[in-house]
Amino acid sequence: MKIRCLTGLCLSLVILLTAGAAAQSDQRTAAPATVALITTDIQLAKDGSYTETLHVEMRAGNDATAAQLGQVSIPYNASVQEVAVLDAHTHKADGRNLPVEASAIYDQAPSAGQAILVTSQRSKLMVFPQFAGGDTAVYTIKITARQALLENQFFTSEFFPRTVAYEEARETITAPRNFPLFVESHNVDFSKREEAGNIVYTWHYSAPHPDAEEAATLAPLEHTPRFFASSFKDYAELGRAYAVLTDPRRLVTSKVSALADQITKGADEPKAQAQKLYEWVSSHIRYVAIELGSGSFIPHDVDVILANGYGDCKDHDLLLQALLKAKNIETQSVLLNGGDFYTLTDVPTFTTLDHVITFVPRFNLYLDSTAQVAPFGILPMQEYGKPMVVASTASAHSGTMPLLPPGLAKITYKMAGSLDKNGQISGTSSTSAEGPYVITLRDIGMAIQATGPTAGNKLLAAQGFADASATFSQDSPTGFEPAFRISSTFKASGWSDEAAGKYSFYIPGLMRLFARSGDAVMGSSDPGKLNLDEAIPCFSVSMTEDMSLKAPAGTKFQKVPNGLEVKTPNLEFTARWSLENDTMSVHREFTSHISEQFCRGTVRRETAAAIKKIAESYDTNISLASPEEMARDTSPEAQASQALYTTASAHFNTGEYDAAIADFTKLITMNPNSGSTYHDRGTALLRTRQYDLAIADFSKAIALGPDEPESYVNRGVAEHNTRQYTAAITDFDKAALLQPDNAAIYQFRGKAHFAVGQIGSAIADFDKVIALKPDNVDAFVTRAELRMNTKEFSLAIADFSSALKLRPGDIDILNERGFSYRGAGQFELAIADYDKVIAQRPNLSSAYMYRGDAKTKLGRKAEGDADLATAVELDPTLKN
Predict the structure, then answer these.
(1) pTM metric for this prediction
(2) H or E, element range at 96
(3) Nearest 5°: phi and psi at 524?
(4) For residue 254, what are the CA distances in angstroms to 258, 284, 298?
């Protein structure tokens, strides 16, 4: 895809890369689509008007792609632009040229969704004859912009996705010397020169061998070859230009004045008046999305908006400002991105500015009436913390939207279910939301309302429940109250084996309407290939869940699962399990707090690890006793034991390990032959670092249940911590025999082998860890360190490089790889790694010392001495 934004009008040249089966054998290895040539020549006038000649040659690699490339649509704004097709033909693979006849060139109005607002939006459609795989669509068009969309200004953007093959791409802009352009270019060659009183700006790009797929990233634009050019010197000037264009339309007409008086009747305070006006626009002017710059920056007249009863963001902003002005409340327009972009281009453009909202300085409030159901002063989540531009003729400036305040965004989910002996779960649920989440929940409510009575059934069906039904209940989803709730009743079958005690299972989310705790607010629980050096937007939120499940009549739940506590400087999560009579419950609570818009660096890594643990905790299983187990556990002694075990588990789950140890001790007195109780007490003793006592308990657990690998692993950990490495290795050996696919066992054993100097055995263990867990960064690093110990520097370098692919830019890994490069005599590569380390840790003396040594060995003694001097200055103990 190549997106071109010229004076605010985005022209899209779409290359679809979903290649289907090729019709001929010679198409099987061809790229789905190739831009053989694209040239753009723009002749710019000093008032921002221009003529552009665009020439494109686009080759289809197979018939599937040809079906998409066989017609090309060029959007334009008929109010200020003219498009003429100078040439268009199909260049057949056999060399023939088949012209596009005039009858195959169509001037089209926009689709119905846009035509109602952007009446000047058009597109020129060209249909290429006999177009098949291997053919090239060739066309040349001339675009004449009679005037600039923003007075005396010009800006353009070009993007070159890495998955598209570009054999040759060139763009030239010729501008008068007194109409300078500010330029930003990333991975695209750029030059400029003076010529006959003009300045000629030239870009060149070529990438004939595209990447197979885009790198995983949250901001694709920032990783794509691209360039921008703009006549705006800064975003303040851009903001002023938008205000100059729109302010004349911010009129208090007689209709606006009368309506403002009618809406605010009975409200004397200005803030109460502002709230009434905001809520009226939100609920009475239907929002129809048209991005800024698509067709025109000019909103409709206020009376036209009122007559239509609909409008885009520009119309919403204009009408709300006019109504507020009628009550002497001053306002400003704020330009920002309404989607997933959290940065602006360095050169001022509208590339990531596609939305406008209203700012009321008097109350320091930002209002987005296009959200339709947002409470007064509350914005959609994605608008907090973003860069923005205040559009004003007097005080235009760029800035940053306020961060989402802690405690504002809240979600509460409650579910109470019962499982019957036939395996059907039935019950009730409720989802409540506050702050920005209330906007999302009301939108969900409207979707439920639009779907009708089958909405609940469809939600359960989407989760794979074939025999299930549900009914939602809610108040009207339209409104502006600060909190909203959706309730449900449900029933779903499919747990007959679980109800019979054959299998363990987790409590299903069923009617959960939001993501699980922490997901999507501090990073994704399923980040895919997104690396940890990618900064992600983060938010301060609170999420609470209370879920319970009642056992079938005459049955009972077994062991209470362990709880979980996850804590970083920026988030806290707790999961607490409890069992009361025949009902198992879990309470989960998540809170995040962040003082900037992004999680990056250490915060990003801590957060990613925490979110992974939280996500995994949702798979915690519970189980019911089988009929045989129930028959054994009906005595008063057994019931008392179960009650005490429930108490012990609760103490363990809340970190009250001493109390748990005391409870488990009483249980052992009641039943000295319970291997699981010795194991549980041993685990509590391990948590309190009472290693010798823990070893004794795990030994008893193993004597009573010799086939339980976890007891061997835990005893091995306790032995390792008391430096009984040989005993630990023996225990890890036994655990590995019982559970040969458990990577953690080999990781523990590898460290024990290393502790006793058995480097070869340690490396073999980490070979197994990596084979089982190829994304285990720490395993690669440890194996590399082991190989450094045996001076196998080339192998160590390979491992450090593998670790860096999984965790790009990690300074500690780069530092160690630099040391390996030195050991291998690859001093230039060592210097390159130390350069990166020093760039981020300029006070790390060892990096200067080792870099200096590498430079000296390359004969660059002066540079080496300078680095060594810096190292000594940072750490005087290195002088000797």
Answers:
(1) 0.71
(2) none
(3) -90, 145
(4) 6, 19, 21
